[in-house]
Amino acid sequence: MQWPLWDRAVRVIHWYLPLAIAFMWWSGEEGLYDWHSWVGYSLLVAVGTRVCWGIIGSQSARFAAFLASPSAVVAYLRGRPYQGEGHNPLGGWATVILLLVIFLQGLSGLFVTDDVMFEGPLMFWGGEWSGVFAEWHELNWLVLQVLIVLHLVALTYHQLYRKEPLIGAMWWGKTKSRFSLSKPKNTGLALVIALIIAGLLFLLITLVPQAPSYY
Predict the structure, then answer these.
(1) Can you list the domains of the chain with their CATH numbers?
(2) Which end of the chain has fewer CB atoms surrounding its CB within 10 Å, N or C?
(3) How far apart are CA 120 and CA 182, in angstroms?
């Protein structure tokens, strides 16, 4: 028998992130800056929703359920078996770090300008710091690539070597072990949260004063 582990909100966000990040890379390389911007906004919405869901969402989705103490992380790295389901002590913190780096990537993009083809919606407010934000955007992208590679290496290790069906669990949302007796929360609440965040972001990027144009 299989038991629920990851609710639909967690799974949709989880699978959307790599697709959106891949598109962001491609659109940036191809100079499709309008698409690059809009998908970047959607990433901010997705991360913001996941953070909120990590506080009020289903039991297994909450940060409190998988953020272990430093001593637990050290013990896990030293070989202590992890008996629970969901993220292991190291994987829990890796998830939070990934979300943070993705958020910083999107945030810095709001202030970026290359003085030719692209201006972020908050570029004017970045002022003389816009160049710093541009460098931050580039450096943070390198950090994100490293984290993605580490994530894929860890996933391959657990999936193939340790025979832990992580991909299936994240796709179907179920596990063979009974992780929690709590019922997954309605995904509709996560959708409402996403719409609220999207609305606030839309107001921010459309109502904030823009840089004066001399052309």
Answers:
(1) 3-207 (1.20.950)
(2) C
(3) 43
